[in-house]
Amino acid sequence: MDVLAMLVPAAYLAVLAVLSLFGAHRLMVLYLYWRHRRDAPRAGVAPALPAVTVQLPIYNEKAVAERLIDAACRLEWPADRLQILVLDDSTDETIELSRSAAARHAALGVDIEVPHRADRRGFKAGALEAGMRSATGDFIAIFDADFVPPPGFLRRTMPHLVSSPDVGMVQTRWGHLNEGLNLLTRLSALLLDGHFVLEHTARHRSGRFFNFNGTAGVWRRACIEHAGGWQHDTLVEDLDLSYRAQLAGWRFVYLKDEVCPAELPADLRAFKTQQHRWAKGTLQAARKLLPRVLRAPVGLGVKVEAMAHMLANLAYPLVLLLAVLMPPAILLRRPAGLSELLVLDLPIFMLATLSVAVFYASAENEAHGRWFGKAWRLPLLMALGIGIAVNQTRAVVEGLLGSDVTFVRTPKMGASPAWQGPLGYRPAAGWTPIVELALATYLAGGGWLMAREGAYGSLPFVGLFAFGFGYVGLGSLLPAPSVRLDRSSDALDSEPSLSAAR
User: Fold this and answer.
1) How far apart are alpha carbons 25 and 35 in whole angstroms?
2) What is the spatial distance between Cα 161 and Cα 159, in angstroms, rounded to a whole number?
């Protein structure tokens, strides 16, 4: 028992210490952002308007396909220099919706085609690879099915490519069509704002590598081909190509203030599917690319940030271990004096957790200038990050040890004028909700024991963990939301609001 009383608290503090390193990196990103916040990229004068191909990869997206095609056809670019390829691999009625929408726009003079693959080899990466063979443009803009590019998107992104021959890709920030739909969409918006407002900006403007996010960006065709093209040996073809291109010497540009609206997952199962795919794919890409990055003739800061970027999901197994260790570690250390707890626990715990609040509050302030009104989201965002640790730990293990690259899409809920029916597709709940609810029960029981022993100072943290696992576990078992987006064509025709673009 004496050995256990020493090992469990020691392991608990060790896990906290490692997690604090992830927190320290988050603060470093914030520092880089503030240091370079005024170094916005500036485009030169474009000598001419080149040919652009817009690629729209779609698979069984009947709820959003027509909305996407309509938005792409409203892009402001000379008609004789704009080609739209609807890369529709669908096996359901989506393909007919795509063909009908394309025919409607083709009759108005739009150069639009709907190539259809019967063999979905390579999934999205395979569709993009096949689409390159049909593309006539020297530049390739890509939009996923849940995005609604604003009409002026090409006008504002293309000058950065046309005026600088060494720029291989321009990425824009994701906006949120349905942020206010429910609690999950509100938290997801905050999570993405941290990535797009702070991380991307800090990495780009400080000279680190950053990645294309699979959508809402424009590539130089020569860059794609020089870097080896779209490859489908990972689940993150966008991250993979991005690092290969930058290692080959191409420069990327990130436009923080150019916002491309998109739909957020409104269902916890869909959210977990998306997060699992991203985490698993990122670890696959790390296995493939990090050795090349470490051998590359680039600066130490670039290498360190690439490692932090690709290995960030390793924090999830540690969060899971921390959840298991927390109740016994706190109860076994009750005889310790308060001063010992303050000296050892508090600084490490605050670095591991408070950094999250500071980071996302800063992201919200920079994105919208009103972080205080959304401060209530911060502890709930931390709870969500804790709650998906089981799901993400599974993704980490699969990404590190497995080679499966089956692409599981994220269901969309947006409304299409030509379709108003049930989605007919929802990811299976699987076994993770059982583990999540078991952990919630375990932590709630641990909290009860702590209260009985008078360890009141630890209750908020244990409660945060218990709530996080309970929310994610229970939410994964509840019926999917029935509310869908209701975006009028007038709203979709408009540019992003100034408040969204700041």
Assistant:
1) 15
2) 5
* Rounded CA separation 263/67 (Å): 12
Given the structure tokens 């990229």, which residue do they identify? 41
Could you give the 3-state DSSP secondary structure of residue 250? Answer: coil
Q: Give the pair of three-digit tokens for residue 474.
A: 């229970």
Given phi > 0 = left and psi -120 to 50 = alpha, else beta, which region is 214? Answer: left
**How far apart are the C-alpha atoms of 248 and 251, rounded to whole Å?**
9
Both tokens of residue 485?
A: 């987006």
- Do the Cβ atoms of 221 and 138 come closer than 8 Å? yes
> How do 217-220 and 82-88 pair as beta strands?
unpaired
- Give the span between the Cα atoms of 10 and 8, in whole angstroms: 5
Residue carrying structure tokens 């409660």:
463
Residue 238 catalytic? Answer: yes
Residue among 492, 417, 429 nearest 62 (CA):
417
From the list 89, 144, 240, 267, the catalytic residue is: 89
Q: How far is CA 234 from CA 204, 207, 405, in A?
A: 24, 25, 6
Helix (H, G, I), strand (E, B) or coil at 23: helix
Pick the catalytic residue: 238, 240, 267, 345? 238
How far apart are the C-alpha atoms of 457 and 366, rounded to whole Å?
33
Q: Give the distance, in angstroms, between the CA of residue 456 and the centroid of all CA atoms in the same chain.
A: 36
Which residue(s) pair with 233 in the sheet? none
Per-residue HEC secondary structure of 237-289 comes to HHHHHHHHHHHCCCEEEEEEEEEEEECCCCCHHHHHHHHHHHHHHHHHHHHHH
CA distance 53 to 57: 13
From the number of C-beta atoms within 10 Å of its C-beta (0-12, 13-18, 19+), residue 243 rates as buried
395: DSSP letter = H
pLDDT tens digits in sequence order for the chain, 502 residues long? 577 777 888 898 889 889 989 989 999 999 999 999 999 999 888 778 999 999 999 999 999 999 999 999 999 999 999 999 999 999 999 999 999 999 999 999 999 999 999 888 999 999 999 999 999 999 999 999 999 999 999 999 999 999 999 999 999 999 999 999 999 999 999 999 999 999 999 999 999 999 999 999 999 999 999 999 999 999 999 999 999 999 999 999 999 999 999 999 999 999 999 999 999 999 999 999 999 999 999 999 999 999 999 999 999 999 999 999 999 988 887 655 444 555 455 666 666 678 888 999 999 999 888 777 778 899 999 999 999 999 999 999 999 998 787 877 777 766 444 444 445 567 778 899 999 999 999 999 999 998 888 777 778 889 999 999 999 999 999 887 664 444 433 334 445 433 333 3
pTM: 0.91
